[in-house]
Structures are given as structure tokens and as C-alpha cells.
Write a structure and sequence with these properties.
The complex is a heterodimer. By secondary structure, chain A is α+β, with helices and mostly antiparallel strands. Helices cover 46% and strands 15% of the residues of chain A. Chain A has eleven helices and eight strands. A six-stranded antiparallel β-sheet of chain A has the order 3-8-4-5-6-7. In chain A, strands 1-2 form a two-stranded antiparallel sheet. Chain A starts with a helix and ends with a helix. In chain B, the strands form two sheets. Chain B has a six-stranded mixed β-sheet with strand order 2-3-1-4-5-7, sandwiched between helices. Chain B has 27 helices and nine strands. By secondary structure, chain B is of the alpha/beta class. Classes of the chains: A alpha+beta, B alpha/beta. β7 of chain A pairs antiparallel with β9 of chain B.
Chain lengths: 251, 615
């Protein structure tokens, strides 16, 4: 399970403090106190979170300083990127006012999957700053200079065999099928791997395999992972036939 | 809502859980009984009851068909739903598959709303650790508020703990719904008891609630889902030591590959054929016949001398020869040999993969991959298969599947004996029989598909359980139980049929019956008159008809053509009475009658055509 909103929150705050060069424990406590409306009490923040972050390898404690590790920094950057892109989207495209878009972005950022974030970034033309002027960390799409989103959500049947994709939504399936999919946890947000498309569609989710007819699979929309496709377009990659046999005999 | 129970009656303990999580295995272990447990879901189709003493307490233990949700109206889950909501047990033991925690937790949330004391039994811990998942039993127990007992049903570990824990069953902590859901629930009903709220939503009249009922249930389900996922995340640890690509995962991939699957299937069928013929028919059967039956028959014959008693006991319709010895010497060894590889294929998890392979093909027949499992069960027993047909969603699929099972899917006993007859004929006979039966099935299926409106279509979706190494102990136990079942069910029928034929013979009615059928049997099919006996007897048990045909063939009473035609007609002919009754229950009596007549016509028609064109 990837969603850790509490951790994300702390990482975000730590990143902000880092930007302002105030990466010590006291600043952190002050920030949370201010947030909770209890200045100076030290009650807003949970020391347990710090320990958790250190255990996960996201944070390093050096005396009084709290330093984000490389992994932690990367993760924080992703979170900040999501947040600031969301702000851009809400401000520029939806013309929301500052108070509105800030609160909305805070909620919004937690549900933005990577693929959607990229879509928004490309849509807005890779903005470098949020409405407040703070820098937006670069993403893969910025570096690649991507200018095309294509249709980000595609039917499952249009995804290359062997790729791992995230479920976007399910389009008007019968109640019975909907129930089955929910039971097997194939729900929006979850990752599935496409095992094969012929003679029936077989997907793998969390180690369980599900087979379904093409007509049903066409109604399951997933975020197309264009990074994977770029990799498979590289020379030497064959169609699914070769990859099956190599998969069969591979380690 | 609790049903009135006699004071002092032992408490009912229901084993509930999602399909294919091991309930039946646990039931068997706790009761010593043998309800079937396999590696595909919905094997248990009825609620099975058994009184048992668990750790000093007398209880009535119930095994239930798997259930995915309290509201879902799937046919195969109906019985469990009715039990839980209409006649609730005193204690629920939920079997949770540790390797698929979330789906069990979703069900747990719904069971919690019933406010019945529960125990959670954590099964398949080995499989979970193979995947690199470890479930923290104590954390789970703390989260749910009920005792959690880890179990390995296969080895029987943890069963004593389970028996003890049942005494400590507690009502689980209800799922906390978000405020907006609570609000809507309050608007719907003033009742605060969760169980009552649930029953109002699920049973409420649509016109009274408007859209409110289903919408609230949708929100409730979302809350359950969210709860299940967050608990799952809290109590599961990944060790990162996943199974990797074992032999079995590779085999599983092969069984799904468009070309590989067919090679695999042909290889398997060839292997089973060889086993049944070489070991079952040519070796075991001959052995038992030579060492046990023939001497016994001679002894009895010498004791009785010629005359009525001789005929009654060991004559052509002798109670002992036709009734008993055939079952033991001819059918039993073949069945034993057939059930082992069949059991292996079941246990290993092969059959669900067949549904992927045959999905496209089945569409020509108006069916889809969902029908593969019921039809494959037909190779075991056609009555069981016909009952399984209920699972199919549309009437069209149920009708066509039941028809095809009745027409051309031979059950295990019939396969065994038919194969042993075919082994005495040239190979072309085997090829010819299989080809004609398959082509007929395809044509009939395609024809039937056209009879029904096109838009009535089911949708194919099935879970593929992982292919795993066969559990030999389990397979042997099941084979043993199946053989015992054969002896207890079939032998009395064999004896009864033999007695009936004897009676008819002595009353002179048998000849009349043969005369009646002679136009079809002799002129149409080119077979001797007494073939009619074999056909009649097929209605009681398919094996018996085949056995009588085998006897005629062994006694050199039939030419090659006659054996071939006789075999073909018998395979295609009506299934046993039990199956016909199952058809009646599943499809209605008019359909069952119609199918029976059609099947008889097709069988005799096919035989007549072959007879006509035999070169």
C-alpha cells in the first residue's frame, strides 16, 4: 500500500523548511504548532513520525538538523510537484481564488496518481513555478520535453502485454461484473499487470489472476504508462510472442 | 431476528468465507466427514450440517457455499445469504485466506454488521508466506475485536486452538462509517442497531426508499472497502521473499498460452487415456476378474448346479454377475485409475485455466468460458455438472450447457468402460468416436444458440487460482471417498437393474420390450435385439449399460461395426435418472423432458446414419 498521507504531510513540511534553510526540529515543531493554532506548546507535532521517517530511510537526523535523504528528497519533490501543479491547474484553468485553491490543492494532491500529474504538467506546458512563485520540481515529462498527452486513460485491451498499469475507472459494467471486480480488488487506483490479451484477457493483481472476455476488458479504463511504451519501443524488443517464450524460460 | 431455538439445543457454528478459502477442508478436519474440497471456487453448493463435539462442547457445525457479499444476488451465494440473514447461526467462524486478505476483510466488515459473535480463522498462511506476505495475527485480532486463530487446514495445525477459540467468540467491533453515511442511515431508519439498519437497506422496498437504499449501500460498501484496505495495510508485512518463477508458475503460463495450452491438454488427455487403458482395463480389471470373479462364479455355479438359482445368481442377468461382480471387477478398477489423474488436475488448479482456453470456442455454442467448469465437472459426474450449471447467468447458457452435458459428456464410469472397449478396437474407432461426438456437440450447440435471442449473453470472468503442487494425501482421500460413494450408490442400482431385468425376463415382458424397440435397434442401428437391455439399463447408471455392451463385445456377439455403433449411441444417449432429475430442478420439467427426447433422437439418429454409411 503506497498511500501514507501523514508521512507525506511531514515530508512536505520538511521540504518547505529545507527551501527556507530552517531544517531543524524546532522549526518543525513551530510549524505544526502554528498549524494547530497552539503556538509554543510543541503539541502539534508527533515525534513518532520522525522515527518512522528515519526507519523508512527518508530522513536522517544529524544533531539538531533534520535532513532529507536522497530517497526522502525525491519523494518530497514528487509531493510538492503534485501540490504545486494542482495549484496551477486550479488557479489557471479553473480560475479559483487563492484561499479556495490552496485548500483544494491540499486535498487534491493526495489523490493524484503519477500519470495524472504528468498529464496535468504536459497540459499546462511544464510550468516552472506555482501561483505563489515557488519552483515546481521537474518531472520525467519535463526532461523529455513531452508535448503530447494523447488520451491518458485507455481501455485495458489497448495496453501492451506485460505492462503494469493503474486502473482509472470502470465504464458501465453490469452490477454482477462490477461486484466481481470490487471483490478481486480491481478498483480505481490499484495497479494491475496485463498477462495476456488472447484468447482472453488475463490480468494479475496482487498475485491473483483474473481472466475475462475482451468485451468486459474494454470497459476497464487504465492510465496508459507512456514510460513503459517508450522503453518497449527501443530496438530489440519484440512482440508478445517472443516475450512469452523468454518469460517461460527466464529466471 | 434470531430464530427461536429450543432451549438447550446445541449452538450452531457456521463456517463462512469467500469462495475457495478452505472452509470445506476445515469442516472435514473438524468433523471427520468428507464434504468435497477442491481448488476451484463454489464447490460446496449446499449448507452441510454436522453435529460435532469441539473441545468439550456439543455444537452443530455448518459448512456453507462461499459468499462475496451479503447483498449480491448471485445464485450460488443464495443459500449462505439466506442462512445468515434468515436463520442466523449462533457463532460465525470466518475463514480468511491470508494470501488474499482484503477480500476477506470486506466480507468481515459486512459480517460484523450482523452483530453475531465471531472467530476469525486465518487459513493458508503458508501460501501467504510463499508470496512474501506475513499477517500479524495479534494486530488483526486487536483491530477486529475477535479472536484470530492461524490454521493450516492441510496439515491440521491449529485446529485445537480453533475449537478452543470458538468458546471465546465475540461480537466484532463494527466498522466506523464516515459522518455523512451515518447521517443518511439515520435519515433512512431511526433504528441504531447496525443489524437492523443493514436489513432495512437490503430488504427495503425500492419504492419506499427511492434510490436511497442502493445509494446508501454503495456508500456503506465504499466504507467497508476503505476499512478493509487500511486494516490490511496495518497488519500485513512484506518480506520481499516472493515465490519467484517456480515450476508451477511456468506451467501455469503454458496452460494459458494460445498454442501451449492445446499441447498441454492433448498430452494430459493422452496420458489419462493410457493410464485408464493400460493400468485400469488391461491390468487391474483383468487381474481382479481372473483371480476373484471367475473362480467365484465357477464355485457358485458348481454349488447351485444348472437351473433357476444358477440363472438368478450367476446367469447373464445374474444378481451377482451383473449386479455385483461387474461393479467390482470391471468398473471399480477403471474408476480408481481415472479418479487419480482427474483428482490431480482438480487439485493442481488446472480446470479454471481451461475456461480461458475454450472461451472463444464456446462462443460458437452460445456459451462462454464460464460454462467450461460445469462441463468439465461432467466428466466426473453429470448430475453434479448439471447442478453446477445453475451458476451460469442466463437461461440460454444454462439450457445449452445442460443439453450438451446430457448429450455428449460421458461421466467417469462411462468413460472408463467405453475406453476399455475402445482399446480392443482399432485406433480409428477411438478417433472416429471422439470426432463424431465433438462434431455433434458443436453442431447442436451452434443450432441451439440460434434458437435463443442474441442479446441474452453472459459475460466471462473467472479467477484463476495459482497452479500448485498436488496434495497427494488430499487426492488419495478424495479418490477413496469417490470410490466408496460409487459402491454405496451404484451397486444397489446395479443390483436393482439386474433384478428388474430378471423379473422382466421371467415375466416374458423383456422380449416384448425388445420387440417394441426392434425397429430402431435392429433395423435402424443394425444391432442385436438384446442391445435394448443395455440402453434401458443406461437410464439407471451409465456404467451399467456400457458394461453390458462390453460383455457382448467380449463374448464376440458383435461385429466391429456393431460395437462402434452401439458405443456411439450409448455415449450420446440419455444420462442417468439422477441427472435428468437435476435437469428438471435446474431448468424446469418441460425443458428437461424436451431435452431428453431430443437427446434420444440425436443419439439414435447418429447411430442410424453411421450404420447406413458404414463401408
Amino acid at each position: 500500500m503506497e498511500a501514507h498521507p501523514k508521512q507525506d504531510e511531514y515530508l512536505e513540511v520538511l521540504y518547505h523548511l529545507r527551501e527556507r534553510h530552517h531544517s531543524d526540529a524546532r522549526s518543525l515543531a513551530e510549524h505544526f504548532d502554528a498549524r494547530e493554532g497552539k503556538p509554543g506548546t510543541g503539541q502539534g507535532f508527533e515525534p513518532g513520525m520522525i522515527t518512522q521517517l528515519v526507519e523508512q530511510g527518508l530522513l536522517a537526523v544529524a544533531g539538531d538538523e533534520l535532513l532529507l535523504t536522497d530517497v526522502g528528497l525525491k519523494r518530497a519533490e514528487q509531493i510538492i510537484r503534485r501540490h504545486r501543479l494542482a495549484e496551477r491547474l486550479l488557479a489557471d484553468v479553473l480560475h479559483m481564488k487563492s484561499q479556495e485553491f490552496e485548500a483544494a490543492a491540499c486535498e487534491f494532491e493526495h489523490v493524484l496518481a503519477e500519470e495524472i500529474t504528468e498529464g496535468i504538467c504536459i497540459l499546462l506546458g511544464h510550468p516552472r513555478e506555482c501561483p505563489h512563485g515557488s519552483p515546481i520540481p521537474e518531472g520525467q515529462c519535463c526532461r523529455a520535453g513531452a508535448s503530447r498527452i494523447g488520451s491518458a486513460a485507455v481501455p485495458l485491451t489497448e495496453v501492451p502485454v506485460g505492462s503494469t498499469v493503474r486502473v482509472a475507472y470502470v465504464n458501465a459494467l453490469s452490477e454482477a461484473r462490477q461486484h466481481q471486480l470490487t471483490h478481486f480488488d480491481v478498483v480505481p487506483g490499484n495497479l494491475i499487470r496485463v498477462h495476456q490479451l488472447k484468447p482472453a484477457v488475463v490480468i494479475v493483481h496482487d498475485e491473483s489472476m483474473l481472466a475475462m472476455e475482451t468485451a468486459v476488458a474494454q470497459k476497464i479504463y487504465v492510465w496508459r504508462n507512456w514510460k513503459e511504451e517508450q522503453a518497449s519501443e527501443a530496438p530489440g524488443a519484440n512482440g508478445s510472442r517472443a516475450s512469452f517464450w523468454s518469460r517461460l524460460f527466464s529466471r | 431476528m434470531r430464530s427461536a431455538r429450543r432451549k438447550g439445543a446445541p449452538p450452531t457454528v457456521a463456517l463462512v468465507g469467500v469462495p475457495n478459502c478452505g472452509k470445506s477442508l476445515i469442516f472435514n478436519r473438524l468433523t471427520g466427514k468428507s464434504s468435497t474440497s477442491t481448488n476451484y471456487p463454489y464447490t460446496t453448493s449446499e449448507v452441510v450440517e454436522q453435529s460435532v463435539n469441539l473441545h468439550g462442547r456439543d455444537v452443530v457445525l455448518l459448512d456453507t457455499p462461499g459468499i462475496t457479499g451479503l447483498e449480491f444476488r448471485a445464485e450460488e451465494e443464495a443459500k449462505t445469504r439466506e442462512l445468515l440473514r434468515g436463520n442466523p447461526p449462533d457463532i460465525i467462524v470466518q475463514c480468511v485466506d491470508a494470501s488474499h486478505l482484503v477480500r476477506s476483510l470486506i466480507l468481515c466488515a459486512q459480517l460484523a454488521d450482523l452483530e453475531i459473535p465471531m472467530v476469525v480463522c486465518l487459513n493458508m498462511v503458508d501460501e501467504a508466506s510463499d508470496k512474501g506476505l506475513i499477517v500479524d495475527r495479534e494486530a488483526l485480532s486487536a483491530q477486529l475485536g475477535v479472536p484470530v486463530v492461524p490454521i493450516c487446514a492441510l496439515d491440521g495445525r491449529g485446529l485445537t486452538d480453533l475449537s478452543k477459540a470458538i468458546a471465546q467468540a465475540r461480537v466484532p467491533r463494527p466498522v466506523v462509517y464516515p459522518p455523512h453515511v451515518e447521517e443518511k442511515l439515520r435519515a433512512l431508519t431511526p433504528a441504531t442497531a447496525r443489524a437492523t439498519q443493514v436489513s432495512v437497506i437490503l430488504d427495503g422496498e425500492p419504492h419506499r426508499n427511492g434510490q436511497a437504499g442502493p445509494r446508501i449501500w454503495h456508500m456503506v460498501l465504499e466504507a467497508h472497502h476503505h476499512w478493509a484496505r487500511s486494516i490490511g495495510a496495518k497488519v500485513t508485512r512484506t518480506t520481499g521473499l516472493g515465490a519467484g518463477r517456480s515450476f508451477w508458475t511456468r506451467l501455469a503460463d503454458l496452460a494459458l498460452h494460445p498454442v501451449g495450452a492445446w499441447c498441454f491438454l492433448l498430452l494430459t488427455v493422452a496420458l489419462v487415456y493410457l493410464l485408464v487403458v493400460e493400468v485400469g482395463a488391461r491390468f487391474l480389471s483383468v487381474l481382479i476378474d481372473g483371480w476373484v470373479v471367475v473362480p467365484l462364479v465357477e464355485r457358485i455355479a458348481s454349488l447351485t448346479g444348472p437351473g433357476h438359482l444358477h440363472d438368478v445368481l450367476v446367469g447373464p442377468y445374474g444378481l451377482l454377475t451383473l449386479g455385483l461382480f461387474n461393479a467390482i471387477a470391471t468398473v471399480l478398477p477403471i474408476l480408481a485409475v481415472f479418479y487419480v489423474p482427474f483428482g490431480v488436475l482438480e487439485d493442481v488448479g488446472y480446470f479454471p485455466r481451461l475456461s480461458v482456453q475454450f472461451d472463444r470456442l464456446f462462443r460458437w455454442l452460445g456459451l462462454n468460458g464460464n460454462a467450461v467448469l460445469p462441463i468439465t465437472l461432467g466428466f466426473g459426474c453429470s448430475a453434479v455438472a448439471t447442478v453446477a450449471v445453475r451458476r451460469l447467468e442466463t437461461r440460454k447458457e444454462r439450457f445449452i450447457a445442460a443439453f450438451l452435458i446430457a448429450l455428449g459428456v460421458p461421466c467417469s464410469g462411462q468413460i472408463g468402460v467405453v475406453v476399455s472397449i475402445l482399446s480392443t478396437l482399432p485406433v480409428l474407432a477411438l478417433v472416429g468416436t471422439v470426432a463424431i461426438v465433438l462434431v455433434l456437440q458443436l453442431c447442436v450447440g451452434a443450432f441451439l444458440a440460434r434458437l435463443f435471442p442474441k442479446r441474452a449473453k453472459g459475460e466471462f470472468m473467472v479467477e484463476l487460482p495459482p497452479l500448485r503442487a498436488p496434495r497427494w494425501k488430499n487426492i488419495m482421500l478424495r479418490t477413496y471417498h469417490r470410490l466408496v460413494e460409487f459402491i454405496t450408490e451404484a451397486v444397489p442400482l446395479f443390483l436393482a437393474s439386474a433384478a428388474t431385468l430378471l423379473a422382466l425376463h421371467y415375466l416374458g415382458l423383456l422380449d416384448r420390450l425388445r420387440d417394441l424397440l426392434a425397429p430402431v435397434v435392429v433395423s435402424g442401428l443394425g444391432l442385436p435385439r438384446n442391445y435394448a437391455d443395455a440402453l434401458l439399463v443406461t437410464l439407471a447408471r451409465r456404467e451399467l449399460g456400457a458394461v453390458m455392451l462390453k460383455k457382448m463385445s467380449d463374448d464376440h456377439l458383435l461385429s466391429l461395426e456393431q460395437t462402434f455403433v452401439g458405443l456411439l449411441v450409448m455415449i450420446l444417449f440419455l444420462p442417468c435418472l439422477t441427472t435428468t432429475m437435476a435437469m428438471g430442478r435446474v431448468l424446469g420439467w418441460r425443458s428437461a423432458a424436451g431435452i431428453s427426447i431430443a437427446v434420444m433422437a440425436i443419439a439414435t439418429g447418429a447411430g442410424a446414419v453411421v450404420h447406413l454409411f458404414w463401408m
